[in-house]
Amino acid sequence: MSVGFDLLGTDGLARRGRITTAHGTVETPAFMPVGTAGTVKAMLPQSVAETGAEIVLGNTFHLMLRPGAERVAALGGLHRFMNWPKPILTDSGGFQVMSLKELRKLDQDGVSFRSPVDGSQHRLTPERSIAIQDLLDADITMSFDECTTWPVEEAAAAESMRLSMRWAERGRRAFRDRAGYGLFGIVQGSIYPALRAESCRRLADIGFDGYAVGGLAVGEGQEMMFRTLDTTAPQLPADRPRYLMGVGRPADIVGAVKRGIDMFDCVMPTRAGRTAQAFTRRGELNLRNARHRDDPRPLDDRCGCPACADHSRAYLHHLIRSEEILGAMLLTWHNLQYYQDIMRGLRSAIEGRSLDSWIAAFEAEQALGDIPPCPTKP
User: Which end of the chain has fewer surrounding CB within 10 Å, N or C?
Assistant: First the structure.
């Protein structure tokens, strides 16, 4: 194994760990901001780091289409290209290719598809996906898989999962082992416990540096997602990182950490920031709403991000209604800061073996909702 993982403590099923890569360490549980095309939208790299993020996610599909993996490699790799010296995990491109529907053709060897950018023809196989991620210089490479659709019958989910397992084996053979770089396998099987168990066994037999749970947060709902994690996470190797792909809202992350997951990514905090949505300790706010236009308070009085430290809700509302770019920048920073604050809180709670009380306080505060401002005197 070339990516290190130290399990530093537990509280119930929750884990406190540390991942060691070629470009630095990652304290877990960890949330990875999504930098799909080599940038976390509306953020400077140093701003992302200031939130406390230690690793970001890039995407094989988007980077292979533009600017091209070979070009990124010639320019020194993705770390230098995007000026992010810390660890990078790259998604394999499987989810994006599968979502193309009418633009792609799947076979046992891989996927052929037409670029949504310029209509050019491309092909991704397990081997080509690994090669692209190698060119990008990703610290953590993801196996190429078919993300099973939802809803799906068990027979179709089984066929899809077994194809992904064959691809995982091919990708493992193609991966170039070197110090500080690792390959994660992806568990599939939709909501079916027997299929998830089979996928876990097959991936463990192949042997990976970490194990991801894919095919969730695709419409099945939180209850079903947690039920699937309840049966899946305990079957993953305890000495390797566990990554829940594409999740999610703060409550989703907290519930998954309680069930033994170590790593997360999601576009939600950055996408929400660009659409006037803010995550706070008292729930979500829509800064387009007129109730914020005279409110002098910060978004969250316990947050130290620039949006909260330097600006009022009234000003943020003004920026959003005026379609000023600064509004998206400040809300994105705030959301990423809030997510990283959650991860810091979870890590501290696991270390202190006080996770249950931390979660109870988190849920109680979320349930209170936002307090309206005091009316101003005429």
Answer: C
